[in-house]
Amino acid sequence: MPKASAASASASRSVGGYRRTARRGADLAAAGIVPEERIAEIEKVAARYAMALTPAVLDLIEPVDPADPIARQYVPSARELESSPGESIDPIGDESHSPVKGVVHRYPDRVLLTPILHCPVYCRFCFRRERVGGDVATLTEAELSAALDYVRQHEQIWEVIVTGGDPLMLPPERLRKIVRALDEISHVAVIRFHSRVPVSDPQRVSTKLVAALQAKKAVWAAIHCNHPRELAPAAEAACRRLADAGIPLLGQTVLLKGINDDVAVMESLLRAMVRNRIKPYYLHHLDLAPGTGHFRTGITEGRAIMRRLRGRVSGLCQPSYVLDIPGGYGKVPIGPDYLRDDGTVEDWQGACHPYPPRG
Q: Does some domain include residue 8?
């Protein structure tokens, strides 16, 4: 079934004096983002993988630039219908670790809770692109209750990561109920939200939404951002509202060919994050989701970027470069190693120095 069929309220950046989310190729053409001859191509892709671009994202796009890094993240391309070797509809093995609907329990001490599979925008490289944006994408009350019961029944669960989709798409009152329920589970110490909303739909980060995230326990928010231009003034203000409320912010970035696989762009992004009180957490090597091959760099290129960043930005700006092992075996760090087999250690400029024998 087409994933984008729920998008009956089509829109554009500025059509008829109002602003709505673009969900069709014609919307993007009307907004001046793509030429009309691309409408059919975009519609074909959007029938397979959900499409949505908020006014905030549309405003960031430079239509005159065919390689615009914001447009490439969100505007469908026919290349998404091309498969590459090794790609999978469940590239990180969520299904094999889902004991009840809405829960992924891959590591002993933490679980993912996915109460919603809708997003304000749909990234063209999303590893859950087969699941997000469908007609049935929100847990029912009974399903959410069962998911929370699973957390209650497993005392080894120390952290609950609320993700999706995008959990900040939920109404504040529903968010409040989830936070309150998790807050009351004695063995849960940390509640972490993963969201693209602060950069893609910043007006949604309202006073009510921020208040809904408050808890007695530690609440963290991981912000997905891939390019420095995404941290526009409205996004910075949204992040500031979260940080000012005492919610520590982490940064998650996906390494994307032609978007941020350049050390200067990555440096600018990481500095912008830290300037906005977002600690860079993970730089993800792109997962093997269908139709994402044109975004994928090699691990060698990713390591080279990390190596060059080492001397260019402070430790506050350094994320962990990680790979999710296909099949559900978890994340592993894949960054460069500076300790050599000959007993020397390499500095950030590439020079090697002796070090006492390892014990």
A: no
Query: Catalytic annotation on 119?
Result: yes
User: DSSP letter at 18?
Assistant: B
The reported pLDDT for the residue numbered 359 is: 56
The yes-or-no answer on residue 204 being catalytic is no
Q: Is residue 215 part of a domain?
A: yes
Which tens digits make up the pLDDT trace of 144-171?
Answer: 999 999 999 999 999 999 999 999 999 9
Q: Is the per-residue pLDDT at 11 higher than 90?
A: no
337 is catalytic: no
Number of domains in the chain: 2
Q: What domain range is 207 assigned to?
A: 95-333
Of 126, 225, 239, 317, the active-site residue reads 126
Q: Is 319 within a domain?
A: yes
- Active site (annotated) includes residue 324: yes
148 and 194 share a domain? yes
Which among 78, 91, 133, 83 is positioned nearest to 291, based on CA atoms? Answer: 83
176 is catalytic: no
Can you give the CATH number for the domain in which 191 is found?
Answer: 3.20.20.70
126 is catalytic: yes
Active site residue 225: no
Q: How far is CA 71 from CA 4, 28, 34, 121, 337, in A?
A: 18, 11, 10, 12, 34
Mean pLDDT along residues 67-96: 95
Please give the pLDDT value at position 14. 44
Considering the domain architecture, whether residues 70 and 164 belong to the same structural domain is answered as no
From the candidates 128, 176, 204, 279, give the one annotated as an active-site residue.
Answer: 128
Q: Is 352 a catalytic residue?
A: no
Spatial CA neighbour of 58 closest among 109, 111, 120: 120
65 counts as catalytic: no
